[in-house]
Amino acid sequence: MFINGKWLEAQSGQNFKSYNPASGEAIGQVPAGDGVDAIKAIDAAASAFTTWSSLTAYQRANFLYEAHAGMMKDLERLASIMTEEQGKPIKAARNEVKYGADFLLWYAEEAKRVYGQTIPSARADQRFFVLRQPVGVVGAITPWNYPVSMITRKIAPALAAGCTIVLKPAEATPLCAQAVFEVFEKAGFPAGVVNLVTALDPEPIGDAFINDHRVRKLTFTGSTQVGKMLARGAASQLKRVSLELGGHAPFIVCRDADPVHAAKGLALVKFLNAGQACISPNRVFVHTDIMKPFLSELSTRVSNLKAGSGFDAGIRIGPLINDKALEKVDHQVQDALNKGASLVAGGCRLVEGGLDKGFFYAPTILGDVNSGMSIYREETFGPVAPVIPYDNEDDLLPMANDTNYGLASYVYTRDLKTAFKLFEGLDFGIVGINDINPTSAAAPFGGMKESGLGREGASEGLNEYLETKLGGFSI
Ligand code: ADP
To answer: Is 244 labeled as catalytic in the residue annotation?
Structure first.
């Protein structure tokens, strides 16, 4: 663990192992921190806050520039730790490290643009000034599916704003978090500004963040269930929260769309990270008139997706994170098949050629999916594309919005009027129109409804770490 500028063991002396999901083998061990370690890290962050928040924005930006350069220099090492620990193909891991580094660079620049405001008063002898100040110590909890970029997406804006931070990474990917903190260590952040507490049991760390008055903000990416629990806890001290939670993205292919282009887009975005992304399409609505060419192109593309170790050439599908994830995916597929879905491709665990040692699921296409199946409601987090035929475009918005989630959505159409109608009518924080990658450090990412609160990236992402202070001056 990295606390107050030093690498430490857990106070209990306990460790836990990290595993390679492609082989099931242990690849390292890290300290199993608990509540005492979390408090120690909060102590460090609280005492570093005074100095860090009083540096100039230019000084803070310089540390972030250093961290960005360090992460880019270390790209190959970080990517290979990620492929080993999380399973994604090495090319995707390199892309993620670059995406993660983007946040450090973008917020190094944005740190210098924390502007205030003056407001005209109705009284001649009064002046209003609005000041933006850092909220204070931040507690951050991150998931395993994007184990590098989810860390910098929180840490970069927090540091730019002048906050200090304690991070608890997911128990499945602590080695990635350690590698990121090695980059921070080299960047030379003052002791206590960034702190890492690894833990096998996340609860005591979350409790420490919730119960310690010095932690003024909680930022979390993970499941809706845990996010709600943390938000309930944070409410007792009215801590600020940012939550980036689950999704159930609709992928809408309109009648006028090019079915081949849309199928290509789906094959790319659905099977990215083996479907383990909160913006992964989970309901694919395709007009019946173009179903045949769409499914034909999709099947061809899916049959070319090779599964295996992310280090092997040509691999596009890595393992799922663990056996629980495999079970959940298979359960949803079997439920759909039992209720009348057709199996277009895949539909089973992959075991041939040594894949049985890891947690591989075949890239799967289900046809004739309907609203009675659990996959229509529950987030899959696996390589399964459930295709739902429709006839009437007037039904699209009610169908697509019929979910408690509201993170990402995708639309394929060649008609500008339809594009605007769906862009404006979809209850989702992100809408990709003929675009499968509507994400960037410069763009606000986040969900509506039960997909979360707040935004990450862009100037919105920085606002999450700032308080607004009004000064009224009588002169
Ligand atoms: P997933 O099911 O995708 O693993 P989780 O929401 O369980 O999603 O995990 C996301 C992050 O939340 C991880 O870092 C995990 O350790 C953490 N987490 C899970 N349960 C708790 C909890 N009770 N308190 C604090 N953090 C938690």
So the answer is: yes
